[in-house]
Amino acid sequence: xxxxxxxxxxxxxxxKTALIVYLVAGDPDPKTTVSLMHAMVSAGADIIELGVPFxxxxxxxxxxxxxxxxxxxxxxxxxGVLEMVSEFRNDDSQTPVLLMGYVNPxxxxxxxxxxxxxxxxxxxxxxxxxLPPEEAEILNSELAHVDIDPVYLLAPTTTAAxxxxxxxxxxxxxxxxxxxxxxGAASLDVSDVEDKLAAFSRLTDLPIAVGFGIKDGDTAAxxxxxxxxxVVGSALVKLIGEHAGNSVEMTASVCRLVTEMRQAxxxxxx
Amino acid sequence: MSKTLSGINENLSxxxxxxxxxxxxxxxxxxxxxxxxxxELEETYNRLTNDDDFVSEFENDLIHYVGRQSPLYFxxxxxxxxxxxxxxxxxxxxxxxxxxxxxxxxGQALLAKNMGKSRVIAETxxxxxxxxxxxxxxxxxxxxxxxxxxxxxxxxxLNVYRMKLLGAEVTPVTSGSKTLKDAxxxxxxxxxxxxxxxxxxxxxxAGPHPYPKLVRDFQSVIGRETRQQCLAQTGSxxxxxxxxxxxxxxAMGLFYAFLEDREVRLIGVEAAGTGLDTGLHAAPLNRxxxxxxxxxxxxxxxxxxxxxxxxxSISAGLDYxxxxxxxxxxxxxxxxxxxxxxxxxxxxxFRQLNLMEGIMPALESSHALAYGVQLASEMDREQIVIINLxxxxxxxxxxxxxxxxxxxx
Lengths: 270, 409
What we know:
By secondary structure, chain A is an alpha/beta fold.
């Protein structure tokens, strides 16, 4: 069983929902990223999505766009992101780490070379926003050789027939994008999410994580009882941006939010 | 079928394949939220292209609203001056709104109307596609929002005001390089958010499938007319077609009807900016690498890490780091050739056509002119070169004036 599947499995046994946190690699600088990852785990995060900076983040809102620009300003690229994962692995061999972003940096590195390096560095999965399964055959086969899980997305607009195909190629979990929009957009509609998740969970045995529109303890708690995983991104990235000059204050505020969500989710599923 | 093409004896005009690919290029690289909308667009398009009412409504608007057909004009004085092949100009600059962009916008606005969408969005660089979109939105009573990089808004203020007069809202894009590519990203962000009531009118033969195909099809009227006009006026097919390539819609529109005429050379002209070796250019087919951006795989201006590079061209309409996937395919199969022309050469061609023929070309089209006229001068007098004059140059007067040290604003 992959580290990712194992993580969902043990949360399930404990009766808990996995808390998945997102940050942009290299925001505000490479050194801070790895220590933030450790701090988030201590504060209650189960899984980390590490954003790979790309010049044209067409599915991201202003908060993550700014973070990406800060990271690119530091010269961060895919190979640098892989080094950060490797450094994180020196002190944490348990927490699954996924790379999230756009396909072009992987395409240019070469899928085979990416798979080899990512595996060596301890990457557990990929979430590529602009790579639907139809275009992913080659990448999927390279990732399968090294036991890295490609995670695919479901959206409110996904039909049942497509959802079935997506769930078939997704590994580790499937990621439900809970609203039509970009990252950091408006709040989600919980009853709508409930209906969709009920429909999708009939199509797959994979855990389903919900992202987009989750920004605090309340929204996290509302989704926690419906899904196997809750993803929070822009709300954390916003705090990182606000405290970019002061790493102590940054870490403290990020950890406060992670802990708030952890506690709210655990209370909701208790 | 002729076998002039190494290894490719199949019907090139049959592409893209069923999954939207031109060889390895094209495809549908978008967020899951948009997959259903693209599927719906593809189905609607496939149905309507075989629908007599839709086709005649489109053709009727091309005649009575756009003013087609556009002339194929023999530039006799220019031809005599250079003393080479006969130079013909396809006068897309004479269309309503002043460029070829309107052909595609009429087609897509009709699609939007058929799909029951009440709002259209568009990206624009030079503003020509934005103006054409705002125009058809007014014509069909659709709400219209145009995304435009703040740098482009600065250099094309006339077109910005034109769009506003047409009732469109123009939103400045301040992220990234603040030009066309960022406007396209922002339009995609709008579309994922408002996909239920909004139709995205992409202005060039790029983007996710089926856009490269449908934009090409709507623009292919340029080549069909040209082929017929050339046969009627000269009794033969042209030897060479020349068109500028940013995203590549006017070039694809001209080339498509000639793809199977293997004896006709097809030449696309990219923007070499201040020179291909200076790095300040917009020539992905000449100097780019393969990658994925804005929904399709194609040649891109990118670095070794897959980050998209800033581009430069004197003409905002060519200032884009990617290119339509069909051009990438025509390059690899060697059916078309792609060259590049520098800012200065384009400016010289702009001035020359004003003086020789009394026609003011857009700076985009001036790139095609610069190459086409040079090539014609090296050819025989019996031969024929057709250059696509994709747009008129009124929008560029202040740029040329500024180079002459004259402020007209």
